[in-house]
Amino acid sequence: MPPSSATAPAPRPAVALASLRGEKEFRKVRQHGQVIRHALFTLRVTDYRPRYGETWQPRAIIGIVVPKKTLKLAVKRNRVRRRVREALRTLPTLPPCRATIHPNLAALTAPFGELQAALGKALAGDFKARKKKPAPTQNAAQHAPSQKNAGPTS
């Protein structure tokens, strides 16, 4: 019989948390994701679709990217990764999605509750997402008026 002072474990979120694996999955998020910028991180989010041959299980597949350019010391990069991973793990609910999180330097020193609340809001869609502009097509460039050969009109 467990002692009465033991606390009950936190309830598991309805959506499981998994990691992005392989360059192909990161590329999909980079190409098709919506960008959400915050003072603590940059988030790219796409809808959840199961991997090839996988059964439909709604889950959040998230990759945490901390380049050396952002944080030079490996100790600090690892600490930011651990803080973000724990903030995601302890969120009450996660939407089914694929995402990459790029923490900024401020995520290292921000209070944990603030980091957790910002990630929760961003994943819930409370921040404005910046849509990617479609790439100009080749036909549009051909039909645009050219200023190169425009001479004086006198």
Automatic annotation (TrEMBL):
Per UniProt, subunit arrangement is: Consists of a catalytic RNA component (M1 or rnpB) and a protein subunit.
Work out whether the entry's keyword set contains Hydrolase.
yes
Q: Where is this region: Disordered?
A: 126-154
Instruction: Write down the InterPro entries for this protein, in alphabetical order.
Output: Ribosomal_Su5_D2-typ_SF, Ribsml_uS5_D2-typ_fold_subgr, RNase_P, RNase_P_CS
Its function, per the record, reads: RNaseP catalyzes the removal of the 5'-leader sequence from pre-tRNA to produce the mature 5'-terminus. It can also cleave other RNA substrates such as 4.5S RNA. The protein component plays an auxiliary but essential role in vivo by binding to the 5'-leader sequence and broadening the substrate specificity of the ribozyme.
Q: Which HAMAP family match?
A: RNase_P
Q: Which key words are in the record?
A: Endonuclease, Hydrolase, Nuclease, RNA-binding, tRNA processing
Please name the taxonomic classification of the source.
Bacteria, Thermotogati, Deinococcota, Deinococci, Deinococcales
Please give the catalytic activity noted in the UniProt record: Endonucleolytic cleavage of RNA, removing 5'-extranucleotides from tRNA precursor
Entry keyword tRNA processing:
yes
Question: Which EC number(s) does UniProt give?
Answer: 3.1.26.5
Q: Where is the composition biased (Polar residues)?
A: 136-154
Recorded hits in PANTHER family, A to Z, give:
RIBONUCLEASE P PROTEIN COMPONENT
Recorded GO terms, molecular function?
ribonuclease P activity
Family matches, as PROSITE patterns: RIBONUCLEASE_P (PS00648)
- This one is known as Ribonuclease P protein component
Q: Which family does it belong to?
A: Belongs to the RnpA family.
Please name the gene that encodes this protein: rnpA
Record Pfam families: Ribonuclease_P (PF00825)
